[in-house]
Amino acid sequence: MGKTIGNLIINALALWVVSQIVRGFDIRDLLSLAAGTLILAIVNTFLKPILVLLSLPISILTFGLFIFIINALLLELVAYLVPGFAIANFWPTAILSAILLTIVSTFLNYFVKKA
After folding, report:
1. Kind and range of the H or E element at 4?
2. Contact 53, 71 (CB under 8 A)
3. What is the pTM of this model?
4. What is the mean pLDDT of residues 57-78?
């Protein structure tokens, strides 16, 4: 349970950092950040594995880069479901946010596990 809460906090921090860096990726308040983090965790747990499996041929052809498209689509879904969590447009904003979210969360996870 503690590890799950820690992962949610790291993901919330990563979402906040990305929202500060990328123009057009806006999180209105702390409640929107919490709801977005929770919904993104649920979507990543249940929907992402199905999408990855269905897109396996194209992921192989793109050497795994199609995963960023899937992550961007899931961010768009969260933005649709959570009020106060907004992504301006898909190609520049959602894709860049998905890439940066992966980098920032990997960076934060590395330092938390190192400590």
Report:
1. helix 2-21
2. no
3. 0.93
4. 97
